[in-house]
Amino acid sequence: MDKQQAKKRVDELRELLNQANKAYYQEAQPFISDKQFDEYLAELEQLEEQFDLVEPTSPTQRVGGEPSSDFETVEHPIPLLSLDNTYNEEELNDFDRRVREILGHDDFTYMIELKFDGAAIRLRYEDGDLVLGATRGDGERGDDITRNVKTIKDIPLHLNNDYPDVAEVRGEAYMEREAFIRMNEHREEQGLNAFANPRNSTAGSLKMQDPREVARRPIRFFSFDLINNSDEKDITQYQKMQMLSKLGLPVCEHYKECSAISEVHAKITEWEELRHDLPFETDGVVIKVNQTKFRKQLGATSKAPRWAIAYKFEAEQATTTIQGITLQVGRLGKITPVAELKAVELAGTTVKRASLHNEDEIHRKDIRVGDRVVVEKAGEIIPQVISVVNPDRDNRSPRFEMPDHCPACSEELVKLGDDVDWRCINPECPPQIRQRIEHFASRDAMDIEGLGEAVVDQLVTEGLINTYADLYELKKAQLILLDRMAGKSAQNLLDAIESSKKQPLDRVIYAMGIRFVGKTVARDLAHGFQTMDALIEATKEEIEEIESIGPKIAESVVRWFGQEHNQEIVDSLREHGLTFSIEEKEQASQKLEDKKFVLTGSLPSFTRKEATELIEKHGGTTTSSVSGNTDYLLAGESPGSKYDKAKELNIPILDEISFLELIGENN
Ligand code: IVH
């Protein structure tokens, strides 16, 4: 590969990874698996290094869409959930049936809105002022991008009259198609790279470091949810939209109350036409149970509410040629064939690769190098090869043959049980070693900052580590010999590795990288067994007793702990003092047992979060609004209307000092 080819591939990988990031973090609709993501990232890292193509904006520089180090991370007190998708009338009818079944009656209406294809944003207004703008992040915590959000002209910095004490607003930042095209033209004139589509460009712009540059981007905003105390009242989504409008927040004019699902279908048909005339991109519609009082009863899964669903417009297709089929080695040894495509425009992006999933899939569709194929992006997701256009032509290439040996380490490939995938089960396979360590260090696992692909790659290549347990043996003297690793960054890395020892048991279990053990299963295993030792000793049957865990997972866990190689790793982790049992949350006292607090204004020495933690540590709870049930108002400087309300209701008002006295921490 020469530099020019490398550059091309690097651009392609960056685009794919940026899209994958966005799909994962902003929409919770990943189109590639974590391990595929890691594989692409590893490849990109390697090329950037080898051909000296590192750039500050490359995905390798901000691994996994983590809140960039320059933005603070914010917790979302109410998670920003995703939406389940439906693709046809039948699936939508199933949704309707489920809603009626759970509610046990038909006494509700629907609200239908457009689904804006941009980046989700959470806004927080306190006493009418915009105090926070945040990205969705992983749904539970995102980036504080307030300074960038403030540059979006659609977003009011102060709300109109009659605003609640606290207003949490959710909506979507987006770009209009025309403005996007103009911006790209302008960029090209300046010799800058064009953005792939309005969605990527919106997400990218919101995460820029320089707010003055953000201000030049044509970012727009539509709000679609308002959360405040009045939520408890019996209102409708329709009324919420009107309240948002009244507060001065932008609301898209296309929304409609529908009395039954049949009316929803009719509206969708209408909007499928309308979408082409809109100035912005929509990828479908969102159908919501209109009466908010039913939301609680309908509840949510861990990912999406049951009171709303998305209906995705039909996917767009394109035709292109397969130039080659390459193989990727995943973290768990899975070998994935990938179609290398002649670049083609599809639904606003350039598509150059598509996963072919596995050998069976290739043979089922009889896909061969040189074929013209139909590719599709189903609901804006990953490109899929749907079918071959001209399978009967002469001189076709031979059928695809899966090699017998791993493309990375030459070990013989195997199929386990009734698995469709070929695997490389060599524990020493280099890409797998690297990916296991990267997974161990990743944000949702041990969260070791500074241990990205490049560093792991070097550590492994230099023979400093062979497993993730070896990380805890690293010495500063070894680290400073690595490229781009000065004394300070070496120390930072060692500190990060050291503090990862405090990560709770469930993260350790997840980080170990057992097949089928994702975050949720790891959490269930930790809670079910309480200690690593109990888990190690558990039989398959005992593991299966945990509600969410079936035989396949249980078997995988038992198999993993049964391997000598892994036992050594576990022993080493134990010796290094990683958390091997569930720890109780520290409880300082019960002085505030059953006491309900409301916070207002800014305290001299605590943030809201710290004050809340302190209250909870002493057995109390906090709520957002003052009512007859409130026991204390904890008031700081410039308190809002809660202060007056508390006075009115004769609720004791504490300042920081008297609060500390109350809990006996006044010294
Ligand atoms: S309501 C609890 N309404 O779609 C779910 N979401 O796939 C609340 N989106 O992250 C979402 N238009 O950013 C809702 N009219 C609309 C929307 C919308 C776009 C986005 C939103 C969400 C994603 C879920």
Descriptors:
667 residues, alpha+beta, Helix Hairpins, D-amino Acid Aminotransferase, Chain A, domain 1, OB fold (Dihydrolipoamide Acetyltransferase, E2P), five-stranded mixed beta sheet, five-stranded antiparallel beta sheet, globular, binds 2-(butylsulfanyl)adenosine
Structure commentary:
With about 675 residues, the protein is α+β, with helices and mostly antiparallel strands. It folds into 5 domains: about 5-60, Helix hairpin bin (Helix Hairpins, Orthogonal Bundle); about 75-310, D-amino Acid Aminotransferase, Chain A, domain 1 (2-Layer Sandwich), CATH 3.30.470.30; about 320-390, OB fold (Dihydrolipoamide Acetyltransferase, E2P) (Beta Barrel); about 430-575, 5' to 3' exonuclease, C-terminal subdomain (DNA polymerase, domain 1); about 595-665, BRCT domain (Rossmann fold), CATH 3.40.50. It has 24 helices and 20 strands. A hairpin with a 5-residue loop joins strand 12 and strand 13 (about 335-345). The radius of gyration is 27 Å and the shape is globular. Residues about 60-70 have low confidence and may be disordered. 2-(butylsulfanyl)adenosine binds next to strand 3, strand 8 and strand 11. 2-(butylsulfanyl)adenosine binds near residues 82, 136, 224, 286 and 305.
